[in-house]
Amino acid sequence: MTDSQRSSAASLVITSAPSVPLSAAQKSFNRLSRQIARIQRDIQDWETTMAQIQRRALEELVPVQQQFQALRQDLLLQLDASSQTLRFGKVARATLSQSISELALGLLQEVPEGTASHGAIQEIYQRHTPEPESPLDDTALRGAVAEYFDLPPEAIAEESPESLVAFVEQMLRERSAAQLDAQLAAARQENAEGGDDPEALEPSREKGQTSAQSGRESQRAAQAEQIRQALQTIYRQLVRVIHPDREPDAERRLHKTVLMQRANQAYTEKDLLQLLALQQELGQIDEQMLGTWGEETLKTYNRVLKAHVEGLQHQVEEIQARASACVGVPTFFTLTRRDLMRDFEETLREMRAAVVGMQVDLQKLQSEEPLKAWLQQQRRAIRRQAQRDWDTEMYWVQNEA
């Protein structure tokens, strides 16, 4: 939808003489029309902002990220060479190998497989990464399974290694089913003691609709049919005038093709305002005619507009969710366009600063003494991270207990 089309739709406001106040339905129509125009402007602003950020990311951020990745690869090669040429103590050697291993692991996740760089990084990673601990042997594994499910060891002695996984899955399903049965039984007992109907706990049992429910369903169906007929009537009135197949002049046929595309899109999206705007452009309705709509017609139109407002609001929420995902914040966090642009600028500044810092490190760590001081900093960082991991593990252990 172009700005001129949106402006045309926004101009659909019912006016009246000063001595004749607008009815409640007319006021609702005007309010919903203005609300739709505001939300559509908001969507357009979001799309513009997202496009600007995408363009700047390709032109500014991606080159800096690529430069930073190349510098990290240079640092990896330099540290690996230092580990083979310089003499360090046991602790310093272990710290250097761990730092090389972590740097290589991060690069392996970024550099495409099959490239020469990926192969070189993989080789360095394998040389500086200790062998993983041996997995549990068959006997220990069976013992762990038996202990977890509180079973005697002979209960799974006949299980083959291939069927042991299926056995564990079956036991987990049975345990979950037993827990669910126990919860339902407890709920039934509680409701029985409180005088409630235990049958209410059976969600799968269908119950007949009450007369009130049936009436509401009939009313909703009737309203939906009224909406369908109202949109169809306007659409047909437009088609009779703008259908390009009925136009012999080539230039006017092209113009009508554009109008027909707008009408088809508006009808598909149930965009009443766009259909009415087209009618206004074509002279099928004018400002005075808007005030002649009856109350029932207005009520039907207002239902269409309310549904359109809900759809547009959902579009805004989807755009905000995509924007939140881009900056790594929870989707329930309401992000503004200013927040998104500010986050991009901050990311770009941080990445540029990281490049400068990496260039300084590459130059500084060529000498042995600065490298030793850097390894001491790395060792302290590794210890802090290990302590945080331990604290986190203990927190969950205590809460589970």
What do these coordinates show?
- The protein has 401 residues and is mainly alpha-helical.
- The protein has a domain at 139-192.
- It contains 13 helices and no strands.
Quick recap:
This protein has 401 residues and is mostly helical.
- Look at the helices and sheets and give the structural class: mainly alpha
H/E topology pattern:
HHHHHHHHHHHHH
Please report the total strand number as a whole number. 0
Mean pLDDT: 83
Largest sheet: none
The poorly predicted ranges are 201-206
Question: What Rg do the Cα atoms give?
Answer: 34 Å
Distance between the termini: 59 Å
Helix-residue proportion: over 70%
The amount of beta strand, in percent, is: under 5%
**Helical region count?**
13
- The outline comes out as extended
Please tag this protein with its features:
401 residues; J domain-containing protein; mainly alpha; single chain; 13 helices
Show the helix and strand layout:
Layout: H1 3-10, H2 24-85, H3 90-108, H4 116-128, H5 138-148, H6 161-194, H7 211-242, H8 250-268, H9 272-281, H10 287-290, H11 295-327, H12 337-364, H13 368-400
Helix pairs in contact: 1-2, 1-9, 2-3, 2-11, 2-12, 3-4, 3-13, 7-8, 7-9, 7-11, 8-9
